[in-house]
Structure formats: structure tokens, C-alpha cells
Amino acid sequence: MDWAVPTALRYTLRYAGHPAGEQRLTIEPRRDGLRVVLEANVELPLPKTRQRWESELNPEGLPRRYRERVEGNGARVMEVEFSTEDGLVTVSQGKDDFAIPYLTPMHDPLSLILAVGGLNIAVGQVERFTLVGGRAYVERLPDQALETGGAEAQSVRVYRLRPGLSLLYFNREGYPVRLTQKVGEHVFEADLVQIQQLEAGRRSQPLEQDPEAAPRPKGQREQGRPKGGSSDPPKARVVSGEPPKERENGAPARRRRRRRRYT
To answer: Is there a domain that residue 234 lies in?
Structure first.
């Protein structure tokens, strides 16, 4: 698996067999390691969330910093600082901070994916990884034939992660092509649909947003709109507690101002 070229991996998401959004995993090489970013628009299970995970890795693939932000029914932010110099791992969650000793190499969720993809272990062998919240045990399962991105079925390596009952699938090139995780009574799935090579030094664009919900910069007009205004019929402005008033021809009525007479 060579990450010398910036690469973006796009996935479709499914939950309990139903479409559940999309996510993108971007790997960017740096002079001192890698920058890994996972962005996701998750529609199921409810509530809908926008997620962004970011990890800065050293040349050995271990994280220096990890940030996680989840927006949905409120916002949740977490930052983790891995300091080998101070021998501490500092976790910040809003107003709550705590530190634990950095006694053995630790991983975050993103660095763990890349580390598993680089494993060279036999079927049935188990590898142990240390995380901030505990340990992860990775077991190599027999290879499977899997269709990805509309291509013909190919042999992929399969790893099972415990705890959590997650499965990671990697193709011959070392790309994570499928990820599954048990969430509640159902299975959450991410399937690779596109691999895109990015220009060096240029970041990928954010995941698409709902055009009705996405804010537009002040003073910027929508493309294709005439300068004088919208091409759509004007909408009546609804005043709180009043229904919109219309003329007979459908145009919004203007409220007449009552002139004050002076004697």
C-alpha cells in the first residue's frame, strides 16, 4: 500500500440493508508522515449526523493528534494529543480533560485501519493493538471473493476486530474496500465505489450538502439567475400569525399604509 500520492476513497453507506449516506477517506502524504481524514454524511441510524475524523501520523504510522467532530442532535468534539516526549496522551472532550501515561504505541480509529491493512499475518493469527480506550484484537480470516466498485470479483483479505465485531476487507493493493460493524440489532456497511488520485498540495472538496440547507456566501448569486432577481415567481412573505395575502391574479398583495391627517 503506497500512499506517496494523495488519494481519496469514496464509500456508500448502508444500514440494515437500506441506503444510509456516504463517506470519504482521504490520505495525504506529508514530509513528516501522513494526514488521514474521514468525512461522512450518515442518514441512518437516526438522528442524521455529519462526521469528520482527522489524524496526523508520524512516519511509523502512529498518531500525533486525533480530532473527531460529530454534528447532529447537538455537537460532540474530541481531541487527543499523543506526546512521546512527555510520555502522555491527553484527551479533551469539551470541558473535560484527562491524561494517561504513554507507555506503549497507541492508535486511533483511523491509524488502526491503515495499520491493519499493512499486517502480514497468517489465517487464524491474532494481533493486538493498543487504543486510548483499551485494546483491539485483530484476527485474520480466510480470504473471500468480493465485488467492489462495479468491478469483477477479486480476492480480498478479511480481518475481524474485537471487541465490536467489525470486519475490514482489503484488496490486493491494500485499499480498505469494505467495512462492516454491528450497530444495535443491525449491520452498518461501507463499500468502496471510487478511488481518486488527487493533485499534490490540493485538498479534496467537502462532501456534497443539501443545496437548500447549504449556506451561500453573502453577496453571491446562484448561477443561472438573472441579475435582477430570481426567475421563479416571487413568494409571499408570511407574517407570523397571518396567512399570506394574494391578489386575484396570484401576485402578492401590498399592504396599504394609512395616511395620518393633520388639522
So the answer is: no
